[in-house]
Write a structure and sequence with these properties.
Elements lengths: L36 E2 L4 H5 L13 H10 L3 E5 L6 H14 L4 E5 L2 H15 L4 E4 L4 E2 L5 E5 H14 L8 E3 L11 H10 L6 E5 L5 H12 L3 E5 L7 E6 L4 E4 L1 E4 L2 E5 L1 H7 L16 H10 L5 E4 L3 H9 L9 H15 L3 H4 L4 H7 L1 E4 L5 H12 L5 E4 L13 E4 L3 E3 L4 E3 L2 H8 L11 E5 L7 H7 L15 H10 L2 H8 L3 H7 L6 H10 L2 H15 L11 H6 L7 H9 L8 H12 L15 H23 L9 H12 L4 H8 L3 H19 L6 H14 L11
Parallel strand pairs: 1-11, 2-8, 2-9, 3-6, 3-7, 4-6, 7-8, 10-20, 14-16, 14-17, 15-16, 17-20
Antiparallel strand pairs: 4-5, 10-11, 12-13, 18-19
Helix pairs in contact: 2-3, 5-6, 5-17, 11-13, 24-26, 24-28, 24-29, 26-27, 26-29, 28-29
């Protein structure tokens, strides 16, 4: 679970070059009255705004090329967002079904998996499509399986353990650039290493700078060619704009024949003028309502505004109270549709932002909201009923959320630790939402100046080359246990040498012998880290001296969670409450929690039974935790507040709003804590043969916590 830390003022975004950068301000920057206007050079551009004429669908050449490539090998498709990569997947699955085969479609997000499941049910028939996301398990033997990459990776673990073959004849990895994701990229890499070479692999991705390098690694790793199909042209042209604080729109970039584009002269003058006007005080949002009126005048709606924080998204819609939809008929449809969606849950009907959706046609979308609420906003936007959504950058990944225009208020993003400049991949994913295929002739991206906007950087990003994807593989105890299920240590050493990390090192530039020797040492770093984990498992009795899993190691391998050893040790030491569902859920929540927590609470707030149980768990694990720390493995502390939060929710006597107050979390963060706790409990439920009582209690705990408002769109 990720958390959003408190926003703090920034200096120049780290890593950005010297130059004009974020616009300099005097100590008393002036504001001017906003009056909608547009540079005369935009007249021709704006005249092209409209809906393209309907015509029969004709596949693009890159789509046909990809379908042909799949017949002869693996295929990596890199193309801009919204260019039609899903069509390739659908036609490829259709071909597999016709031949009597099975297909597995894996995505990084549960929301995307749920969406694709519904789409595939309509395309191929409900009886042929199943879904596996942890939260949902429907028709697991269907000919078309949709799920998350973690589920597919776990199935590969099981297949290797039992000596079986994965029950699939074709695998699709959507959002394949997640291979370079710092936290989850390891899962993509494991799948690509473990997947039997008989199964063709189709990877769909945003543009990648080193696609040929990834294809070269896969070809060497899987002994079958991997064809790169690359499309660089957007299906809908993108035009970059700059919004001056006076309300006038300017072209952001001036194109020069035979030369690289540069910042428009009028924009450059503004950026370098320390006394130029601003939209308002540095710590406040621009007048969003007035900006909406500008966009409305020039037919640039619907729009997605990318903001830096959840708080800004929530505050932005409060600045739009004078905005109204232009079309009364659309307003009536919106009112009716909102009423239908709100009827699905009291928590949706009581949401304070429902009024803004229904009356203003604007919404906020961020990770601090309930999953069900985000789906409502996504549904209304996709159906063309909203004028604007104010969102954090998370909306750019995976969800079908198109608009005519996207607007940027800052040129960096918060990565959980610090603010860093947008990279080309992030930027192009965000601008990929601008311009809807079949609905727009042209899309727009608008840069709004402010304290944290590096306008020259944004101009460069429009024409920047795609970012490279780098290996993020790392060893953890879950991987170590699961590889030992089916491989001897010497075999694992060979397996790790097939990693993308090793391939990148070996096939990188080799300048001299000294560098080559260092390179050879670097390629062993994964094996050294693996042996470090192996040594600890042998020391603690999960692996025997010969390198085989002990009986305890075998069942511990099935705990495919973040803290498998800590939970396994809790069972070994018999410190878990195996007969009380609420207590078990609360204790497991402490292992799930990833944030620093203030455990200071008033006396009497925490039930004595929970306090005593958590103290017993900590005491029972104390010796094991000490050993982990001594061996260089830093376990997370077990906090009381998340345990109390989930205990109260599982007990069923405390309303959601009161649980929120105890948790001191945003609704979306509490929902994520519940969902992840349920996922950990499912892994405990899977240990029924070893711990039948705890498994039954885990099942009851799941049923208790997976209820409205969490279960509105999720199944236990």
């Amino acid at each position: 679970m990720t958390s959003e830390k408190k926003y703090t003022p920034r200096k120049r975004p780290p890593g950005s070059k010297k130059g004009p950068g974020p616009r300099r301000q005097t100590s008393h920057p002036k504001t001017v009255k906003i009056k909608p206007g547009a540079d005369s050079r935009l007249k021709g551009v704006f005249s092209s705004i409209g809906v393209p004429e309907k015509s029969p669908f004709v596949p693009d050449p890159f789509q046909l090329e990809a379908l042909e490539a799949i017949d002869s090998g693996d295929c990596l498709v890199t193309a801009p967002t919204g260019s039609g990569k899903t069509w390739i997947a659908e036609k490829a699955i259709e071909k597999i079904i016709t031949k009597g085969g099975r297909a597995w479609y894996a995505s990084p997000l549960k929301a995307l998996s749920n969406s694709k499941y519904l789409d595939f049910c309509q395309l191929f028939g409900e009886e042929k499509v199943g879904i596996l996301t942890g939260d949902r398990k429907e028709k697991p033997d269907a000919v078309v399986l949709v799920g998350t990459t973690e589920i597919l990776r776990n199935q590969l673990y099981d297949a290797m353990h039992h000596g079986d073959d994965l029950k699939s004849d074709f695998v699709i990895l959507d959002e394949a650039h997640y291979l370079g994701d710092q936290d989850r990229g390891v899962v993509w890499e494991e799948i690509m290493i473990y997947l039997p070479s008989r199964i063709p692999l189709l990877m769909l991705s945003a543009t990648i700078g080193n696609a040929d390098q990834i294809a070269g690694w896969l070809a060497a790793n899987r002994s079958r060619k991997c064809i790169v199909v690359e499309e660089t042209q957007r299906p809908v042209p993108l035009y970059p704009l700059f919004l001056h604080p006076s309300g006038t729109l300017f072209p952001l970039i001036s194109k020069r024949k035979g030369r690289a584009p540069k910042l428009n002269k009028r924009v450059s003058v503004y950026v370098n003028d320390s006394s130029a006007p601003v939209f308002g005080p540095a710590r406040k949002l621009p007048p969003m309502g007035e900006i909406l009126e500008i966009l409305q005048k020039y037919r640039l709606l619907p729009a997605i505004f990318f903001l830096k924080s959840r708080a800004d998204c929530n505050a932005a819609i409060e600045l739009c109270t004078e905005h109204r939809l232009e079309d009364p008929q659309r307003q009536d449809i919106l009112q009716q549709r909102v009423a239908e969606l709100a009827a699905q849950s009291d928590h949706i009907a009581e949401n304070r932002q429902l009024w803004h959706l229904k009356n203003l046609g604007v919404g906020a979308h961020h990770s601090g909201q309930l999953p069900a609420w985000k789906i409502v906003v996504e549904t209304l936007m996709t159906e063309g009923l909203l004028d604007a959504v104010f969102a954090t950058s998370t909306v750019a990944a995976g969800v079908n959320f198109p608009a005519r225009t996207v607007l940027f208020l800052n040129s960096d993003r918060f990565n959980g630790v610090e603010f860093i400049p947008l990279n080309p991949t992030e930027f192009h994913q965000m601008t990929g939402r601008a311009g809807r295929r079949g609905m727009d002739n042209i899309g727009f991206a608008v840069v709004i100046p402010g304290k944290f906007m590096d306008t020259p950087l944004m101009a460069k990003l429009f024409h920047s080359h795609p970012a490279h994807v780098f290996s993020q593989i790392k060893i953890n105890f879950s991987m170590t246990l699961n590889l030992l299920l089916s491989h001897r240590p010497v075999e694992i050493q060979a397996l790790l040498k097939r990693s993308f990390a090793t391939y990148m090192l070996v096939n990188g530039p080799k300048k001299n012998k000294k560098a080559q020797r260092r390179l050879e040492n670097d390629t062993d770093h994964l094996w050294k880290d693996f042996t470090r984990h192996l040594d600890f498992l042998q020391e603690t009795g999960y692996v025997n001296p010969e390198g085989d899993l002990t009986e305890e190691g075998i069942w511990a391998s099935q705990l495919r969670v973040d803290e498998p050893l800590m939970i396994a040790e809790g069972f070994r030491q018999k410190v878990f409450p195996e007969s009380d569902p609420a207590l078990l859920a609360g204790i497991i929540a402490s292992f799930v929690n990833e944030r620093e927590v203030d455990d200071r609470m008033e006396r009497g707030v925490v039930p004595k039974v929970l306090m005593k149980t958590l103290s017993s768990v900590k005491e029972g694990l104390r010796e094991f935790v000490t050993l982990l720390i001594e061996r260089g493995f830093g376990p997370k502390p077990l906090y009381l507040r998340p345990a109390l939060t989930i205990y109260l929710w599982a007990e069923g006597k405390t309303p959601w709003k009161d649980v929120l107050e105890v948790a001191e979390l945003a609704e979306g963060d509490l929902a994520m804590l519940v969902l992840r706790t349920a996922d950990n409990l499912r892994h405990i439920r899977a240990l029924h043969d070893v711990f039948p009582k705890a498994a039954d209690t885990a099942q009851e705990a799941i049923e208790r916590i997976m209820r409205d408002p969490i279960a509105t769109f999720y199944e236990p």
